[in-house]
Amino acid sequence: MTRKIIVIRHGQTQFNAERKLQGHCNSPLTSKGKAQALAVGTHLKSHLTQRAYRVYASSLGRAIQTAHIICDEIGFEKANVHQDDRLKEFSLGTWEEKPLFELLDEDPALLDRRDWYLKAPKAETYQDVQTRLNDWLAEIPEQEDIVVVSHGLTGIVLRGMLLGLSYDQVWAQDLPQDAFFIIQNGTIERVNCFQDKSFI
């Protein structure tokens, strides 16, 4: 049986709710974000029954907070989560902590491209993130399933690498906080975790 890699984005944070950019800075999960992480954990349980697995998380607080909520649901010891800097979000340079409306005031056409984040002065490059993810992928075990709690942009790059997507295809993916993705044998399955939208 081939390895599953399950890619999860952290739950909604305070900065997400305020439409501020985070990158390598951090803000805590909102009550909605905690509920999203709980729902992900609840749905994830049934996908981890076939063989041993490991849990990895970005070293940023919002990913660790999400991973710990998920671990409580799936019965995984929080102390055994592998925290890894290579799973961190893109650094967004001088745009970190800036409200999106300020950036749109300066450049109203900013959101015309899906990869607009990379316009940030001193931002980490796409190639830099691919390199660190490649290093991480080379080290994870083949014989166990992998749960990885990361971020919106880093998550789509990782999914793209695992699926062999082009640059444009990578940026066409969505960045949900109420779903996760199971990648196995070059195929992807999306598992939605909030069926009843009134819940959130």
TrEMBL record:
<dbReference type="Pfam" id="PF00300">
    <property type="entry name" value="His_Phos_1"/>
</dbReference>
<feature type="binding site">
    <location>
        <begin position="9"/>
        <end position="16"/>
    </location>
    <ligand>
        <name>substrate</name>
    </ligand>
</feature>
<dbReference type="InterPro" id="IPR029033">
    <property type="entry name" value="His_PPase_superfam"/>
</dbReference>
<dbReference type="InterPro" id="IPR001345">
    <property type="entry name" value="PG/BPGM_mutase_AS"/>
</dbReference>
<dbReference type="GO" id="GO:0005829">
    <property type="term" value="C:cytosol"/>
</dbReference>
<feature type="binding site">
    <location>
        <position position="62"/>
    </location>
    <ligand>
        <name>substrate</name>
    </ligand>
</feature>
<dbReference type="GO" id="GO:0045820">
    <property type="term" value="P:negative regulation of glycolytic process"/>
</dbReference>
<protein>
    <submittedName>
        <fullName>Phosphoglycerate mutase</fullName>
    </submittedName>
</protein>
<feature type="active site" description="Tele-phosphohistidine intermediate">
    <location>
        <position position="10"/>
    </location>
</feature>
<dbReference type="GO" id="GO:0004331">
    <property type="term" value="F:fructose-2,6-bisphosphate 2-phosphatase activity"/>
</dbReference>
<dbReference type="InterPro" id="IPR051695">
    <property type="entry name" value="Phosphoglycerate_Mutase"/>
</dbReference>
<feature type="active site" description="Proton donor/acceptor">
    <location>
        <position position="89"/>
    </location>
</feature>
<dbReference type="GO" id="GO:0043456">
    <property type="term" value="P:regulation of pentose-phosphate shunt"/>
</dbReference>
<keyword id="KW-0378">Hydrolase</keyword>
<dbReference type="InterPro" id="IPR013078">
    <property type="entry name" value="His_Pase_superF_clade-1"/>
</dbReference>
